[in-house]
Amino acid sequence: MTGTIYKGIGGFYYVNTEYDGIFECKARGKFRKDHIIPMIGDKVEIEVKNGKGSITEIYERHTKLIRPAVANIDIVVVVAAAASPDPNTNLIDKMLVNAEINGIEPIVCINKSDLADSSTLVELYRKAGYKAISVSAEEKHGLDELMELIKGKTAAFAGVSGVGKSSILTHIIGSKLETGNISEKISRGKHTTRHVELFPVEGGGYVLDTPGFSSVEAEDVDLHELEMCFPEFRNETGKCRFRGCAHINEPDCAVKDAVESGKISKSRYDTYVELYEFVKGRKQWK
């Protein structure tokens, strides 16, 4: 039988098969010998004998995250709040870059549109080339549109505490996730996730929370690949005067001209410069 690992605890992996239900499995010894560790999200083949399941094969992964360790993610939904906490575009940008680095399609979701106008933020990311939507988990606004975007896919939800990820996920999966109470004093949630788990969605696909995804995994990215993680740069980079332009200090730079004209957001460009200097510093240190 084939299925998807949706949860792993204490060396046991829980595999959801399409037609035969869920099986608790152990990984065959050959995986330890080959230094292969099964991951949540892995597509696997299993055998079941006397009620005990064994993972016999792990199929090739098309994407893989390190933090958290999960495979075969199709979409990352980057969740921010229109207010409480105030949106941090720099952090949103870094999570989008993280998705791009890992070859995963990102979607921007601005929650709490009932508390503040989210249209400017949504337009900022649509202009940059992303799918971006406004929702209110409190008022159930926009959630059907979000569900349509992730239908049949494995979608990871990323965002800082307090933005309402868990409320959105609760609506999508139809049951309450385990989260701490939100502190009104500091407007941040106390996240209590103990393990990464895929939750099946009615109509097909899975969703999961991804604590830790805000850590940018840009250390091993080539400096000239970094610009490709910014969709709005892609149409401009070939127009620069110098081949291999870094878009930092060079003259006649089409990207900088686009920033000056307002075609590219200044906040997005500032994030690029910050990440460029970070990656450059890491390369020089090595």
Strand content: 25-35%
Query: Can you give the mean pLDDT?
Result: 89
Judging from the principal axes of the Cα atoms, what is the shape?
globular
CATH homologous superfamily classification of the largest domain:
P-loop containing nucleotide triphosphate hydrolases
Integer count of domains: 3
- What Rg, in angstroms, do the CA atoms define? 21 Å
> Architecture of the largest domain in CATH?
3-Layer(aba) Sandwich
* Oligomeric nature of the chains: single chain
Secondary-structure element order, as H and E?
A: EEEHEEEEEHEHEHEHEEEEHHH
Structural class: alpha/beta
If you had to describe this structure to a student in words, what would you say it looks like?
The chain is built from eight helices and 15 strands. The chain is an alpha/beta fold. It folds into three domains: 57 residues, OB fold (Dihydrolipoamide Acetyltransferase, E2P), CATH 2.40.50; 146 residues, P-loop containing nucleotide triphosphate hydrolases (Rossmann fold, 3-Layer(aba) Sandwich), CATH 3.40.50; 63 residues, Probable gtpase engc, domain 3 (Ribonucleotide Reductase Protein R1, domain 1). A hairpin with a 4-residue loop joins strand 6 and strand 7. The longest helix has 20 residues. The chain is globular.
Please describe the structure with a list of short key phrases separated by commas or semicolons.
286 residues; alpha/beta; OB fold (Dihydrolipoamide Acetyltransferase, E2P); Rossmann fold; Ribonucleotide Reductase Protein R1, domain 1; 3 domains; 5-stranded mixed barrel; globular
